[in-house]
Amino acid sequence: MSDAMQSSYHGIAARLDRMPITGFHKKILWLLAGITFCDSVDMAVGGPIGMVLQSTYDAAGNQWMTLEQFALFNSITMIGYLIGGLMAGALSDGIGRKKAVLICGSIFTVFCFVAAGAPDATFLTACRFFMGLGLGAAFPAGYSALTEFTPPTKRGKYQSYVGLIANCGTLVASAMNMIVLPMLGWRPVFVICGIVGAAVVILCFTFLEESPRWLAMKGQTEKADKIVSNIEAKTAAKGVDVPAVPEEEIQRRENAEVVKDLPWSFLFKKSMITRTLTAMFLCFVMNVLVYTVISWTPTILKANGFDPHMSTVLTVVMQLGIPVGVGALTFYVEKVNRKTILIVTYVLIAIIGPVWASLPTDNTALIMFIGFLLCVCTFTNSVTTAAIYLSEPFPTACRIRGAGVANAFGRLGGIFSPMWIAFFMGTSLGTTGVFIINACLAIFMAIWLAIFGVETRGRTLEDITKGLLDELVVKRFDPPIGHIATHERDLHRGSRFVIVGKVHLR
């Protein structure tokens, strides 16, 4: 096989997909899991800190944070996430996955430390916005980078590992809420979050490689080839066989994904609209379900008659289902279709949620058990959605834009769901009404996925996106009649859209 073919976009993609799992992939896994770990911790500490601040008074007897300020404090992070998600695509596609992770991770880290010194509620709320902005952009960039590095046979498992590590952040946050917050106050909590964020940024700066797929897509084939060649050399040095890539496999891929750059509008073209809407709806429902379980469970239990201490204890026991569900996912994710996992968990959530909310308070053991199952199903679903399903259906040229738009739309679920949660808790339906609404959303998603969902298990990223770019009008240069472009150097560099496959140009 020629060097040009090996270092072309499709050559790089084929070599990455045939690469055996090595320590390199594990390193990438841990680095990018750090980003999502910060996300989980941040989501879980905000609510308890806000509740503490409502009971805090200054020397003059003024309440540090009012109920109205608390509501804004809770929602502002989600607004930051929304804007950050929209930024993620343009930023990552423009400067690369690694730089996007570093910049956005640094934004989160800096404002964690700034928040620790906040003089008042308004300043602290502004810091929460920028923390959400940073994480909202870093989150899709991190997952997409892992997706582009990992071979299709292990992609689901490695992405679920990231989800498992990330959701351990919820347990860490619960520990901080029970130990650090009452003993040392809320400011050290933000300091700890900042230290974790700084560690992740430093490690990513030192060890994270830029995505070779992105480099090749941008025409930086020498850099892409160097990264992949180094991985192959280190793998071979450890006695692990690196399968050669047959020329016919690269040729087979050439018609799968052919565009170097894409406009935002492509996400809503005929070929992409159902995938984009699927990703958007998945994120919206995911945020509603997760937000309800993570942020509102203590309040819901208290409203149902439990005292604050017992509400906290029951919440912690229930949330032990998070690592259990996500951990189990790592074992069967490559054996069961993604669509099947999502549909089954949606149906179970629709059944379990209303049952749990309507249980009498005199059966604590049953409340813990059913709540535990609810957390298992909710977070198995959320990790399958966020870690696996969002980044796979989009072409490389708009993968992070697609995931970013979906995540941004999804944050609306975190912004607006408190409104209907508070509404129903004030009616005769109570918390049961909250989970009936959630059940309706879950059933809607199960039906939508059954009709429009794309199965991605075991398929290369290029195969998943094959045919999606056919409707694009591609700008071409005017070579001699009959000339065949086989390499990026043959392409017109002034055009926004560039064909990178073997195509007759006229």
Q: Tell me the domain tally.
A: 2
CATH top-level class of the largest domain: Mainly Alpha
Series of H and E elements: HHHHHHHHHHHHHHHHHHHHHEE
* Percent range of helical residues: over 70%
Low-confidence stretches: 473-506
Kindly report how far apart the N and C termini lie.
Answer: 27 Å
For the largest beta-sheet, the strand count, sense and barrel status come to:
2 strands, antiparallel
Neighbour order of strands in the largest sheet: 1-2
Gross geometry: globular
- The structure class reads mainly alpha
Number of strands: 2
Instruction: State Rg.
Output: 24 Å
CATH architecture of the largest domain: Up-down Bundle
Name the average pLDDT: 78
Kindly report the name of the CATH homologous superfamily of the largest domain.
MFS general substrate transporter like domains
CATH topology of the largest domain: Growth Hormone, Chain: A
